[in-house]
Amino acid sequence: MTDIFDPTLDNIKVEISDNKVEKGDDINITAKDPTMKNIIIAVGWQLNAFDADSLDLDVSCFLLNKNGKTRMDEDFVFYNNAKDIDEAVVHNGDNLTGAGEGDDETISIDLNKISYDISKVMFVLSIYRGAEKDQQMSSVRNGYIRMINTSNGQEILRYEISPDVAGSKGETAMLVASLNREGPKWHFEAVGELVHGGLGAVATEYDIIVHEG
């Protein structure tokens, strides 16, 4: 992976105005805008036209320590636990259908308030009752995750996930992206890793027990 905002890469010419990122890209968002402290992570999607049931795609996130685990239940932020203990990460509500234009769900983040023993914030997209409805990540059309600078509303980057979910084989969740702490800097990584077992499987990996129902 290449950090395109690494100042040591003087010989690589990159068009900074292009905010599109792809799976595997690592972006030093602190270098891109050193003044940025408050951000919004937004996701949007549409259902394939031939699917009968509406698709409820949820965004959630896990605050992880250096061992890649949550410290407490409140480190899992989703529609039923809207904020972490420090109120640094806030889920702004559940959209059940993905209907309409624009962002469907958002998470607000104050980078300065994230506890120093948190090394990573992992963002997950999951289909509510996906296996039950026979829906998988390939059912998601025009899906994306994007980062917005809260202070001016500017879109900092956008990862369109459609190419990376097209070949899903029953997976109902995706580790879509992460914010990674590197000293005083924050990096955004487009992860794009499909996961079997839905949100529960992801949560279990991070030492959280999820009861879906």
What attributes does this structure have?
Lipoxygenase-1, mainly beta, single chain, 213 residues, 8% helix, six-stranded mixed sheet, 3 helices
Would you tell me the overall average pLDDT? 86
Question: Helical segment tally?
Answer: 3
Structural class designation: mainly beta
Helix/strand order, N-terminal first: EEHEEEEEEEEHEEH
Apparent shape? globular
* Beta-strand fraction estimate: 35-45%
Reported for the largest beta sheet, the result is:
6 strands, mixed
User: How many independent structural domains?
Assistant: 1
**Helicity level, as a percent range?**
under 10%
Low-confidence stretches: 1-17
Main CATH class: Mainly Beta
What is the name of the CATH architecture?
Sandwich
The CATH homologous superfamily corresponds to sav2460 like domains
Please list the strands of the largest sheet in the order they lie side by side: 1-10-9-3-7-6
A few lines on this structure:
The chain has about 210 residues and is mainly beta. The protein has helices spanning about 30, 160-165, 200-205; strands spanning about 20, 25-30, 40-45, 55-65, 75, 90, 105-110, 120-125, 140-150, 155-160, 175-180, 185-195.
